[in-house]
Amino acid sequence: MEPATIESRAWSIFDRYFPNRLEWARWKFAGFLLLFFCIFAAIPYTLSNHIATWRGVSVGNIEIWLDREIPFTSWAIIFYIAYYIYIPVVAWIGAATHRREEALVFFQRFIGLTWGVFVIFIILPVEVTLRDQVVFEPGFYGWFMSDLHAADLPFNSWPSLHVFQSFMMLLIVRAWYLKENRWPMALAIVAWATTALIWFSTLGIKQHYLFDIVTGLAVTATAWHFWIRFSIIQTER
Predict the structure, then answer these.
(1) Is the pLDDT at 171 greater than 70, yes or no?
(2) Residue 25 to residue 108: CA distance in whole angstroms
(3) What SS3 class is residue 10?
(4) Which of 29, 64, 188, 230 could make an S-S bridge to 95, C-beta 3.0–4.6 Å?
(5) Domains of the chain, residue spans
(6) DSSP alpha helices (H): ranges in 99-226?
(7) 223 burial level (CB within 10 Å; 0-12, 13-18, 19+)
(8) Phi/psi at 200 (5° precision)
(9) Mind listing the pLDDT tens digit for each residue in 24-72?
């Protein structure tokens, strides 16, 4: 039996309500992907975070000695925030005419996996108790840290969404560009280094444990290998 086409893997609701999506201007399709993500991933994250906080339950202690040995690093907030640039960038790259259906299927599965992480936050919550190490410096860094703590309550431990999502977005862009022979060494170094700094930032500003980083990487690697790449990147079949 022939494998299903990329088009047939897009949810039927898109065919019903957005049948002309392949003809849209690039900015419109990118905006559509971004809005899709915000409605079905960003908003539910806030809800799951507040549910876990409301429950006030921590199922265990996953802190190890190294979590407190890593010093608070105020400048790491820059890379923590830089993660949010990834989403519109991936939406824009995916909105290229020849990638649109692959991008839509990717975002479908990406959001589905994200919902799986939300379930873990709710049923197996772990409170991050490292915030006592945070130093609220005056000025730019301190202002961002204050806002982050007000918006992001400490029941979003494992697996780290920042790690899982940034890694997954890096892998899809890498796969697209490799397929088109557009992944030179310089770009690869910048992309991997920036993503690694995002991972470090979650530790440096005391938002996550090392366990959260490891599980975030494991979720991404497993999902990419078994559910994402062969279903989306046609040349990798």
Answers:
(1) yes
(2) 21
(3) coil
(4) 29
(5) 26-236
(6) 100-123, 140-151, 161-179, 185-204, 210-223
(7) buried
(8) -60, -35
(9) 999 999 999 999 999 999 899 988 888 888 887 888 888 899 999 999 9
